[in-house]
Specification:
Layout: H1 3-12, H2 18-25, H3 28-49, H4 56-69, H5 77-92, H6 105-116, H7 118-124, H8 129-136, H9 142-148, E1 150-159, E2 162-171, E3 174-181, E4 190-194, E5 197-203, E6 208-213, H10 216-227
Antiparallel strand pairs: 1-2, 2-3, 3-6, 4-5, 5-6
Helix pairs in contact: 1-3, 4-5
Bound molecules: zinc ion.
Zinc ion is lined by residues 3, 6, 23, 27, 29-30.
């Protein structure tokens, strides 16, 4: 079992198998992911034990039903409930989840994009290369991205109030998602961790760039290459 397989199995919520445990005991990075994952679930459980406003549970159930709309591997219902709670609470910006305050909202939006909208962007197809080169030129030139990894997909997608150019980039160790946002200005660099995904957002001379991946080391190294 490798790190990616471990993380996918962890996120599927089936509980840790012997093979997973074997990997975690000799991999510091996956041990850390497991610890964060357990903390997040504990935070969510505590949050869900608070008295909630009338209608909140209905909203969660509707979110669960939306999640179930797409065919995917079966998840235990408790796990589905937690996943829906996490998405709904983040999207609604409720104050129940204290840990959310420690996390950068734009970096979280990038993680949410990968969880909810990446597959849709891939299905809609890529934009022409010449067009991509033109729209990215002032923020993160296409040639610079191509020096970091192999571009598998690039397409415009709505993100927050503006447009993000969604780039799926293969680097030697992993797959990362870039969200190039020419019209989104950031005051400072931000980071977030959620659902086993790591995100960082970087202010650029014009606009900003988000980097999302399953490994903090890979996300940091790609961010370093973007700023170089
Ligand atoms: Zn590992």
């Amino acid at each position: 079992m490798n790190c990616l397989e471990y993380r996918r199995a962890l996120l599927a919520g089936e509980g840790e198998t012997d093979a997973m445990r074997g990997h975690r005991l000799q991999c510091a990075s996956c041990a850390e992911t497991m610890r964060e994952h357990r903390e997040m679930e504990a935070d969510l459980r505590r949050a869900l034990e608070l008295p909630v406003p009338v209608g909140f549970e209905d909203q969660l159930l509707q979110a669960v039903q939306r999640l179930e709309g797409a065919p995917e591997p079966a998840m235990p219902s408790r796990r589905r409930f937690l996943a829906a709670a996490s998405i709904t609470a983040a999207a609604a910006g409720t104050g129940y989840l204290l840990w959310r305050d420690r996390e950068d909202p734009m970096a979280l939006a990038c993680i949410q994009f990968v969880m909810r909208d990446e597959a849709k962007s891939l299905m809609m197809g890529a934009m022409p290369r010449a067009e991509a080169a033109r729209v990215l030129a002032d923020t993160l030139p296409l040639e610079r991205i191509e020096r970091i990894g192999r571009i598998r997909h690039i397409a415009p997608c709505p993100l927050g109030e503006g447009t993000a150019y969604h780039v799926v980039l293969m680097v030697p160790q992993d797959k990362v998602t870039l969200l190039v946002m020419p019209d989104t200005t950031l005051p400072a660099r931000g980071r977030a961790i959620r659902e086993g995904l790591y995100a960082t957002v970087l202010p650029m001379r014009r606009g900003s760039v988000g980097v999302v991946g399953t490994s903090s080391a890979v996300v940091e190294s790609v961010a370093g290459a973007i700023r170089a």
